[in-house]
Design a protein that fits this description.
Elements lengths: L13 E12 L8 E12 L3 E5 L6 H8 L7 E10 L8 E2 L5 H7 L4 E4 L3 H4 L6 H12 L5 H14 L16 H12 L6 E5 L7 H18 L2 E6 L2 H7 L2 E6 L2 E7 H6 L4 H9 L48 E2 L3 E3 L2 H19 L1
Parallel strand pairs: 3-8, 3-9, 6-7, 7-8
Antiparallel strand pairs: 1-2, 1-4, 4-5, 9-10, 10-12, 11-12
Helix pairs in contact: 4-5, 5-6, 6-7
The site of adenosine-5'-triphosphate has 14 residues, from strand 2 and helix 1.
Length: 353
């Protein structure tokens, strides 16, 4: 049985719920299907920053594309739902069942997306002004030209870009400016959720820092929720309220940022934590995780991480661990669950004495 790893504190908190989601890449006559996401259960709360981290090929982008309905063939959502709650406490809409027309209603005004490459998202042959006007108009046909101009300029200023950039084509801007312009565009219709897939990977570290600070400031001012996908755990440790760790297409741990930073439970999270020391901590020695991520076509039996895990016991290669509620975290690890059970049994004995 799988559990929902992020039980909301109240139902009103929840903006988006991913339930029992499986995503396949359909094979051809010569190749089998690849299950890139299995049994994903995750909730995004209003106004939080939820990070999703994991090594390359762990299924992060596949999950993000499925939850925003941006996925393209051969990817298909073969099971599960993605429930979006437009208003606090309102019944949700299952985005998996929405057709493209219905999805249009949610794009930009409820959910917007910032991808790794702004160049791939912005139209290279259209000036920024018209791209901003198009998005703003699509959601409010009554906006006149003067209001459109003011709003587009205001949005660019929010990310530190002078309004005269509206006259430019995307290729006339630096990489960092393009990425910030895309973030400004994502804010155009006051969305409740912005989904970001490695939004700072393509820029240098100085620009990366500026962009992250801007995202944090805007998020605090405007109150939108963020789902931030990256392979770089140190980024998330600085900014995320909660972090979900993916391995081999599954979520293996979900906890507050402080727990993932100071007391991660899953051996894989511990390995990632060692490999990516916090950006703000003193420089320490990095220790990579031995071995490589699994081939999703040939996942090891039991826990997919067991061949790389220094704590693995026999059970780990035999039975896949389910996500279990531990004192500070939710993690899929037999060893941690047994330790927690031992502590609980010991406490009961002590109390009975
Ligand atoms: N078009 C495709 N056809 C078949 N398999 C695919 C396709 N795209 C991705 N995959 C497989 O799905 C798995 C998950 O890929 P995904 O891109 O979601 O991982 P990721 O965690 O986002 O990795 P990265 O950090 O490198 O972007 C990988 O094993 C990949 O080979």
């Amino acid at each position: 049985m799988s559990i929902t790893p992020t039980p909301p504190s109240t139902a009103e908190d929840v903006l988006l719920e991913i339930r029992d989601l499986d995503v396949l890449y359909l094979g051809t006559e010569d190749s089998a299907n690849v299950k890139a996401c299995s049994d994903i259960n995750l909730a995004v709360r209003r106004g939080e920053i939820l990070g999703i981290a994991g090594e390359s090929a762990s299924g992060k982008s596949t999950l993000l594309n499925a939850m925003t309905r941006l996925q393209q063939a051969p990817a298909v959502t073969s099971r599960g739902s993605v429930i979006f709650h437009e208003h606090p406490g309102a019944d949700g809409v299952d985005l998996v069942g929405c057709d493209d027309r219905a999805m249009q209603r949610f794009r930009w005004s409820d959910i917007s997306i910032v991808m790794q490459s702004a160049m791939a998202c912005l139209n290279p042959v259209i000036r920024l002004r018209d791209q901003f006007f198009d998005v703003l108009r699509a959601h409010d046909r009554s906006l006149g030209r003067a209001r459109l101009q003011d709003r587009a300029a205001e949005l660019l200023q929010m990310v530190g870009i002078m309004p005269d950039a509206l006259n430019k084509y995307p290729h006339e801007l630096s990489g960092g400016m393009r990425q910030r312009a895309l973030i400004a565009l994502s804010l155009a219709c006051d969305p409740d959720l912005i989904v970001m897939d490695e939004p700072t990977t393509a820029v240098d570290v100085v620009m990366q820092r500026q962009i992250l600070n801007q995202i944090l400031r805007l998020q605090q001012e405007l109150g939108f929720a963020v789902v931030f996908v990256t392979h770089d755990l140190s980024l998330l440790l600085e900014m995320a309220d909660r972090i979900a760790i993916m391995y081999g297409g599954r979520i293996v741990e979900v906890a507050d940022g402080s727990t993932i930073s100071e007391n991660p439970q899953h051996p894989y999270t511990r390995g990632l934590r060692e490999a990516f020391p916090s950006l703000v901590s003193e420089r320490g020695k990095r220790h990579g995780i031995p071995g490589s991520p699994p081939d999703l076509r040939r996942l090891p039996s039991g826990c997919a991480f067991n061949p790389r895990c220094t704590e693995a016991i026999e059970l780990c290669s035999q039975v896949r661990p389910e996500l279990t509620v531990l004192p500070d975290s939710i993690a899929a690890c037999h060893v941690r669950r047994m330790e927690a059970d031992d502590i609980a049994a010991h406490t009961i004995l002590e109390e009975a004495r």
